[in-house]
Amino acid sequence: MSAHRALFLVPGEGPYLLSHSVGCLPRAARARLDDDMLTPWAELGSDGWGNWLGVIDRFRGAASGLLGVEPEEICPQPTVSSALFNLLSGLKREPGRDVLLASAHAFSSLVFAMERLQRLGYRLELLPEDVDPGDPQSWIDAIDERVAAVVPMHVHSNSGVISPIVEIATAARRHGVFSIVDAAQSVGILPVTPRAWGVDAVLGTSVKWLCGGPGAPFLWIRRELVAEIEPIDVGWFSHENPFAFDVRDFRYAGDARRFWGGTPTIAPFSLATTGIETIASIGVDAALEWNRTLIAHLEVAADCRFDMTRQGGTLCLTAEDIEGLATALGDAGCRFDRRGDVVRASFHVWNSIEDAELVGGILRDFPARQIGADRPDQRKPLGRAA
After folding, report:
1. In what residue span(s) does the Aminotransferase class V domain sit (predicted)?
2. Residue 376 burial (10 A CB sphere; 0-12, 13-18, 19+)
3. Residue 1: pLDDT above 70?
4. Which of 81, 90, 356, 372 is the most exposed place for a label (fewest CB within 10 A)?
């Protein structure tokens, strides 16, 4: 059994393999929610805001500690896609620079948000489906002076492929392009190091590997750039002084809080802080090492090998008999999910060697191929979305 399983409430009796979707609830979260949100509400009513805003401060501190950045560079967000929209809407426009660049393998919600920004004069361009988003040259060839912002996923949700973030950021700086990384599928299982990467912004969420529940995404923005960006979607907590209450005097907050908006939610960020602190106490490096250890045990049981050198924490698998594989996993009590013909399964800190061997035994009977392991040998031309 994993040494860390006792820290979490793990649903079901079989292996829970859905960290890429919803991480398990930390046992400490319920008491923390009561202390942070419910008790002040019951005992103080409206005067509980002092306590509640302290929850946001702790969330910013926990998230910044995980990323190795400053709390002032972190802003809570309602969703990852709304964070992206808000950030891009505030960029200063330059004549002739109107392209938003992403991959067709990006998470659909982000692409939908970028499509709507065409109403503000942007054009969306996507690296086509047959272009490997893990190939640095594909991004380098696509980034030029027409591009306003590039938005790679750190880890792709349908394949587990890692984008070459450092190479993308280097190309972006060379051409004066704003770089934004979607780290939703990586933060909590892979190192997310914005400063070392050299990117301008990072979007993340607490619901997956950070075990923080839904409703608590975050935006990191490089502090040197904050004053240059004026988001459209603002509210009183985007104000330099939220309690000024002068409707004729809006002044953007001097730090990342300018992306905050209206009256904030509190409960999700209490839960998320507990999740982040729990994972941080274990260590992201330790979580990744355990993930790879369990995959190695799975490989022995399955008599196969998976290439994890450019992969996140999720095994994205297909098989000749995908229905048989899914049925066998379900019959064994495994909690996993499917995206079409792709079975996704993730090992986290609560999973055990027995879990890995169980899954590996099933894969021996239903041989599976790893999605994203076969890279195209030749680069394809850039595709454009209308």
Report:
1. 90-299
2. exposed
3. no
4. 90
Q: How far apart are CA 308 and CA 85, in angstroms?
A: 32
The overall pTM is greater than 0.70: yes
- What are the Cα distances from residue 270, in Å, to 57, 148, 219? 10, 35, 17
Residue-wise pLDDT tens digits, 165-200:
999 999 999 999 999 999 999 999 999 999 999 999
**The domain over range 31-280 is classified in CATH as 3.40.640.10:** yes
Domain edges within the chain: 31-280, 283-370
Q: Rounded to whole angstroms, how far apart are CA atoms 88 and 85?
A: 5
Q: Which one-letter DSSP state was computed for residue 173?
A: H
- CATH number for 283-370 (one of 3.30.420, 2.40.30, 2.60.40, 3.90.1150): it is 3.90.1150
Taking CA 342 as the corner, what is the angle to CA 338 and CA 347, rounded to the nearest 5 degrees?
70
